[in-house]
Amino acid sequence: MLIATALSVVQTKRLFAVVMLSGVFSLLSALLFVMLDAVDVAFTEAAVGAGISTVLMLGTLALTSRTERTPTRSSLIPLLVVVVTGAVLVYGTMDMPNFGLADTPANNHIAAEFLKQSPHEIGIPNVVTAILASYRGYDTLGEVVVVFTAGIGVLLLIGQLGRRRRKGKGGKV
Amino acid sequence: MASGFTWDFIVGHLNYWMFIVLMMTGFYIVVARGNLVKKIAGLNIFQTSVFMLYISIGKVTGGTAPIFPADMNIDPETVYSNPVPHVLILTAIVVGVATTALGLALIVRIREEYDTIEEDVILEAERKIAAKENRAYGDAMGGRA
Q1: B7-32 vs A76-93: helix crossing angle, rounded to 10
Q2: How far, in Å, CA of B29 to CA of A140, rounded?
Q3: Which helix (DSSP H) or strand (DSSP E) does residue B126 occupy?
């Protein structure tokens, strides 16, 4: 179903439908995250991916155009590049452990340690929150810095938009 | 390939292959489509499939979400999925929406400047501007160039 949604994003020319389909894609992936036991990730994806991203894209559409021109270039070379990259990635998965095993490297070193220690060291039930706010607190601080920088960037890029338009320069919308 | 293509191997790796197909769909949108908003949508699809890949690495069969009971009486028999990829991906989702916002702001700015959001048209306009500048420069140098 996810693949069908993604393929229809490739084909659709109306950008409004593209934005809606990418929202649908985010919601479906949130469902998949619930299936994979990642409930925190699922509700972040549903709120941020399906909610905020869709609103931002709709805002952009309101400021720009709504349809896509038919591409003039041939799409053969991109297709080739994509297929080759995909083949290399599939080759890379050959050495990966089977899905769902408990004794893989990813599930053993620090993950097992966190699961064992966080009830005593942090004392809150949700391990994801414990790691996010405590063990990897600096990481989260860095994330806040990134979001702040992006906010400043957006303000600098389009903060003057309204004023310029009222002066009669700039865009013609 | 020591293990060979047994049934177990194929079923155990099918999830990775699905995510790679999704990832490549997003990648194809980014490289093959000229519309900038659509490129951002493709980038989002690519990103989300990377998230799925990570989360699926952390899944343990028969495990449950890594949240302890509220009274903290932890049953040692319970299997929990790996919380570390969840944390990493939570951070990545938020960073992803920040980059999306920045990209969309750039698109709005580009539209204001060039009056289009199609890559081909923008390149064409760029070429015209460059040619005009070249000509002006050549005139200033005395008609040669």
Answers
A1: 150
A2: 31
A3: helix B119-140
CA-based angle A30:A98:B59, to the nearest 5? 35
A160 versus B135: the higher-pLDDT residue is: B135
Contact B89 A41 (CB under 8 A): yes
Q: pLDDT over 90 for what percent of chain B?
A: 0
**Does residue A84 lie within any of the structural domains?**
no
| Amino acid of residue A171 | G
Residue A73 lies in a domain: no
**Mean pLDDT, range B114-136, rounded to an integer:** 82
Which residue range forms the structural domain that includes residue B134?
117-145
> B72-92 pLDDT, tens per residue?
666 666 777 778 888 888 888
A-chain residues within 8 Å CB-CB of B38? 9, 15, 18, 68
B91 and B26 in a common domain: yes
Number of domains in chain A: 2
Domain assignment present for B34: yes
Instruction: State whether B110 and B129 are in the same domain.
Output: no
B140 Cα to chain A: minimum distance (Å): 30
Indicate the residue among A15, A38, A67 that finishes a domain: A67
Q: Which residue in this structure is represented by tokens 């005395």? A: B142
Touching check for A31 and chain B: CB below 8 Å?
A: no
Domain count, chain B: 2
Helices (runs of H) and strands (runs of E) counted in chain B: 4, 0
Residue B144 within any structural domain of the chain:
yes
Name the A residues in 113-152 with CB < 8 Å from any B CB. Answer: 114-115, 119, 123, 125-128, 131-132, 136, 139-140, 143, 146-147, 149-151
ipTM of the complex: 0.76
Its domain, for residue A34, covers 1-67
